[in-house]
Amino acid sequence: WLDSSIKTGFLEQVSFAYHGLTKSSKYLNSRRVEFKTKYRNLSVKYYEDWPLVVNAGGYLHLKGARTKIEIKSARTLGVKHLSADLSIDNTKLDLRADIEFLGEESNFLAFFLNSPLKEELSFLSKNWETDGSIAGDLELIFPLSDFSLNAIELSLKFQLNELDMVIPDYNLSFGSISG
Hints:
Number of helices: 3
Helix content: under 10%
Order of helices and strands: HEEEEEEHHEEE
Strand order of the largest sheet: 1-2-3-4-5-6-7-8-9
Number of strands: 9
Distance between the termini: 40 Å
Mean pLDDT: 83
Shape: elongated
């Protein structure tokens, strides 16, 4: 994953620590690795079906069975700004993400339509058009290994400001939606 998913970027203030025995031990927790770094201008393709994340900057801390990733700022398809707190359970290989985002006025739905989330939000269509401000919070929980759409837990909250939306599939058009 590290060889193929991280496309570009810089690491700064990198620290590494190894705690424990240098030889094999029968004790499960006889050693632990810790890694900390700040990163900037990072481009990441998490998984083949997910859009590329670009210009990411933040902090990573791998500490034994837990990995914490703070994204202070990044962009991706349909999203002009996102920030996030990610937590990875390295034993269960589950990811928890709390993401705040600000959508691109005319292309916001592209993120959902070009990711595995399109299966969870199957009512969305490529024919839908948006223009205006969309901000929100997205909470996700899903496995990093043995990825399955059935295993995704998703909570999505939107804040709309002067949003225009055209849904040609249903012959609907909405203007200046706020709330």
